[in-house]
Design brief:
By secondary structure, this protein is of the alpha/beta class. Helices cover 43% and strands 21% of the residues. The protein is built from 13 helices and twelve strands. The chain has helices at 8-15, 31-43, 103-120, 148-182, 194-206, 221-234, 248-263, 276-279, 298-312, 318-328, 332-340, 351-354, 361-364, and strands spanning 2-7, 49-57, 60-61, 64-77, 82-90, 124-133, 139-147, 240-245, 270-272, 315-316, 345-349, 371-375. Helix 3 links the parallel strand 5 (82-90) and strand 6 (124-133). Helix 10 crosses helix 11. The longest helix has 35 residues, at 148-182. It is globular and about 70 Å long.
Length: 383
């Protein structure tokens, strides 16, 4: 039997989004500030409000055993009733927030509702979204009641959508590890110092240690970091490699190294993430359904685009992502981010790892895997 561990948040965000991309409705708050506001809201809650309630479930859908877990922002327990409170910080005007705005928010709260009904035996659960304005501190609450049966059906349907992705990931992972086990250094001989460098990288990954290396131009640093990191994958030292760079030329070099390894037998999905402004086919990046036809209904088409892409290719760069996005009439930038979820090697700018506004929240908000960071020219990083 296959298995997958997934957070409630990831399950909701990856399985329940539908309709349009609309940046006008997505004014975001920095994660640290959002967490601070959550805590303030929880402390001011009335008696009977229990914050940060850990909930989990281990359902089996077809041939997959899922372990789904998370923490509900708040639960209000009554004698015969219970309310799940999911807090979302926003910069939007609260009077513009409607019940239909964000399906993923409702999905997250309903998943907690299902788990709560399952664990405590409630036949009905009230699910409440509390939108908290980050500047004014004012709130808008929207509450809906669901039967335990409705929540169970909703939860099962979300997981059923994931089954094909779990099967695909398992099949690809088996091939990846086999290819890493058999992978040989792609050149006839090592350059001076290159074998020692690669060995140090391998040991740092398998031992989960940091490594800082100073090596002159021409040493072959790119292949000397990627090759041993991939070999460490087979030993269980990592699950996904992030290759961070500051320059486009360095990203091209990393992409070239992956292609060389692929010709020598590597089976790995890799992507080069490109800035939104460079991928956008429009004159201006206006991410809303009124200004961009691709934004209209994007979430209804992107899953099929991603699944189709992974059946066709293993390497995704600016050109291939743009072509696929055009074929499926979806946003190329959002498609690339979604494709990265199924990639073993992600080549991207430093900012996707460290910038508090644009870092890859899908990986780093709730890290659940063994990630390896290869930082090219790390002396360019901020102190």
């Amino acid at each position: 039997m296959l298995s997958e561990k997934i957070s409630v948040r990831a399950l909701a965000e990856q399985g329940a989004q539908s309709g349009d991309i609309d940046a006008r409705a997505q004014a975001s708050v920095k994660p640290a500030e959002g967490a601070r506001l959550h805590r303030l809201r929880q402390k001011s809650a009335p008696e009977g409000y229990t914050p940060e309630v850990a909930l989990s479930a281990v359902p089996v859908i077809e041939d997959v055993e899922f372990t789904v877990s998370g923490r509900a922002d708040g639960v209000i327990f009554g004698e015969d009733a219970v309310t799940i409170d999911e807090i979302k910080t926003t910069l939007r005007a609260l009077d513009s927030v409607t019940q239909a705005d964000n399906p993923a928010h409702w999905a997250q709260a309903k998943c907690y509702g299902h788990m709560c009904a399952l664990e405590y035996g409630f036949s009905e659960v009230s699910v409440r979204l509390t939108y908290l304005h980050a500047l004014t501190g004012e709130t808008r609450q929207i509450t809906r009641a669901f039967s335990a049966e409705e929540l169970d059906d909703f939860f099962a349907a979300l997981l059923k959508k994931r089954v094909r992705w779990v099967r695909l990931a398992a099949a690809r992972r088996e091939e990846l590890l086999r290819s890493c086990r058999e992978l040989l250094f792609p050149f006839d001989s090592f350059r001076s110092g290159q074998r020692r460098f690669a060995g140090a990288v391998y040991r740092s990954v398998t031992d989960a240690r940091d490594l800082i290396a100073l090596a002159p131009t021409g040493t072959g640093k790119t292949i000397s970091t990627l090759f041993p990191a991939l070999k460490a994958m087979e030993e269980g030292g990592c699950e996904r490699i992030f290759y961070f760079t500051a320059k486009e030329t360095a990203r091209a070099a990393a992409a070239g190294a992956v292609k060389i390894l692929t010709t020598r037998g590597l089976f790995a999905a890799a992507i080069v993430l490109t800035a939104k402004e460079k991928l956008c086919p429009n004159f201006r990046c206006e991410c809303n359904p009124d200004a961009c036809g691709r934004a209209r209904g994007h979430f209804d088409r992107v899953d099929d685009a991603r699944y189709d892409a992974l059946g066709r290719a293993d390497f995704f760069d600016r050109e291939s992502v743009s072509a696929l996005a055009e074929e499926y009439n979806v946003c190329p930038f959002e498609l690339a981010l979604d494709l990265s979820l199924n990639c073993d090697i992600i080549i991207c700018d430093y900012n996707y790892g460290i910038d508090p506004k644009v870092y890859l929240k899908r990986f780093f908000s709730e890290p659940e895997g063994k990630f390896v960071f290869l930082c090219d020219e790390a002396h360019n990083l901020p102190d």
